[in-house]
Amino acid sequence: MTSFVTHLEAAIDGTRLPADRVQTIHDGRPLWVRYDLDAVRGSVTADDLARRPATMWKCRELLPLPAGVEPVSLGEEATPLLPAPRLGARLGLSDFWIKDESHLPTGSFKSRGLAMAVTMAAHFGLKRLAIPTAGNAGGALAAYAARAGLEAFVFMPQDTPAANRIECVLAGAKVFLVNGLINDCAAIVRNGMKAMQWFDCSTLKEPYRLEGKKTMGLELAEQLGWVLPDVIVYPTGGGTGLIGMWKAFAELGTLGWLRSEKRPRMVSVQSDGCAPIVRAFEQGQRFAEPWKDARTCASGLRVPGAVADFMILDAIRESGAWAVAVPEERILPAMKEAIALEGVSICPESAACALAIQQSVCEGRIRPDERVVLFNTASATKYTDLIAPELPVIEDPSRVDYHRLA
Ligand SMILES: *Cc1c(COP(=O)(O)O)cnc(C)c1O
Is the CB of 241 under 6 A from ligand 1? Predict the structure, then answer.
């Protein structure tokens, strides 16, 4: 049995590469997975999907794994799309939703990409995987590699959140703390390829992680009855989330499954402590200069340079959107406010998105009645090092002064 994949395509110059063997990058830049969408259209309908289990594997026809092959899975259930009226009102919106990716097996949307990447790596018989990570990608690789019985090497900056270090260690990965940023970790993985014989699972250095991220777009479209929202606001590090969803919408459009021509504006959000994509967007450039002295508490956004910079910028521009850098010092307060308003476990990266929405509404770039979806890319519980609340202690449980508790 086969998949509907026809070939891989170099994003930088359109070169076609065969998909029946291990592929990485072309000319240093990422590859697209291309499908025979006419054949997909002939073999499955949107109505068929509704009858299948609600997991990221639902539309196997739009995924690279050949039919009949079991994916490496930890149970990637469709994540909830939650109405968020209280936070919406605070941001100035009347039709505001949160797609809560914190429900995924490793507590972040990275599960989708690495479930897919590890599935394909196992399918191709690879045994040893390596990844540079700002945190959540390492945790996801470690978990899925364990699930597949593969070896994982994880390289992360020294100040990566404790939850990420611990989840990697518990899953049996070989974990190394690096005195540097994610790009330094990436260089270690790249330069060690010969000596260590590992496969580089860096963001967009292999073609399949993006296909896993694409399922966010497929799932959202189905949850909204095949009518896409007006605006999607997404935190941007390496860019897979934003690019993957934009690819999903293009494929769904070609399949004819979307009930409206409307495509969302894909708003990219970074912190002003690390905003290479925002700077390139504002300067009208197609590629982004690496950011110096990258600094943000939202570790998923601490990516000074992305190999897919031009793909991110193309998606933002094609969608008619923009990129926003929010003030670093406002991210944690915004995170606490958002969680207290809705109870959703919003991570710092997505709190930055809430700030960006507020700013965009104020500037008139988003109208108050537009349908806006914010992606909560991870669970706030993975960032416990950032929050150390000073809590009152009840010293004597037998003598509580209740009047002072309110
Ligand atoms: C990785 C990550 C991001 C950034 O996603 P990209 O697809 O790399 O742009 C955002 N939020 C969280 C929580 C992450 O782990």
Answer: yes
